[in-house]
Amino acid sequence: MSEKRCASGITWLGPAVWSGSTRDTFWPKHRRQIAFADSAAWCLVGAAATLLGQLDHLNPDRIGSILIAPDGPVETKREIIAMAAKGQVSPMRFSAATPSALLAPTLIIYSLRGPSLNFPVSPSVAIPIAACVAARWFVSFDLEAVLFATVSQEDAGPLAKALVIKSTGPSPTAEGVIECLKQFLPNQD
């Protein structure tokens, strides 16, 4: 996958799309770090792996991440509801049920320590705000890149999409980030 110029001062890499669970691909190696994660979170690890593997020259402290996931970790929420009905809810599962838990395995596995933000709302609501945040992060945190990801629950299981936007100029604008995100999520005008 090659980088594409999107707007003044911005290039993008992606999108990468994964569907279904990739837990068996990543979990055995990382099970000591990540005890509980929704299959959608592992799906996101798969999508992100496609892109982040091409960015190993970047400093993980200078890569931000933004997740747009209106459904959150559906599988884990179902498990907690079923456990509660039996009177056996494990507090260890609670953290895996939060919307931001979908991004956590990716951040842990790739040691991404830049700023991160989760939008548990629809992409049409999140994108204008996320674009402003990302544009500001490039300046405020001197970021090299921002990983954008979406996770949704489809009939066949989780679907994750990832896109990396890189700063190549002095100050990327929100409009420029939105232009790149239209390539990622084309029906969000």
Query: Compute the gyration radius: what is it?
Result: 16 Å
CATH class: Alpha Beta
| Terminal residue distance | 25 Å
Give the number of DSSP strands.
6
**Overall spatial form:** elongated
The multimeric state of the shown protein is: single chain
The CATH homologous superfamily: Thiolase/Chalcone synthase
Strand content: 15-25%
Query: How many structural domains?
Result: 1
Helix content: 25-40%
* Spatial strand order of the main sheet: 1-2-6-5-3-4
- Give the class from helix and strand content and strand pairing: alpha/beta
Q: What would the average pLDDT be, to the nearest integer?
A: 83
Q: What is the H/E order?
A: EEHHEHHEHEEH
Provide a count of the helices.
6
Q: CATH topology, which one?
A: Peroxisomal Thiolase, Chain A, domain 1
Runs in which pLDDT lies below 50 for 5 or more consecutive residues are none
Q: Main beta sheet, described?
A: 6 strands, mixed
CATH architecture descriptor text: 3-Layer(aba) Sandwich
Brief overview:
With 189 residues, the chain is α/β, with parallel strands linked by helices. 37% of the residues lie in helices and 24% in strands. It has one domain (4-184): 3-Layer(aba) Sandwich (Peroxisomal Thiolase, Chain A, domain 1).
Characterization of the model:
By secondary structure, the protein is α/β, with parallel strands linked by helices. It has a single domain (4-184), classed as Peroxisomal Thiolase, Chain A, domain 1, CATH 3.40.47. The protein is 37% helix and 24% strand. The protein has a 6-stranded mixed β-sheet, with helices on both faces. A hairpin with a 2-residue loop joins β1 (4-7) and β2.
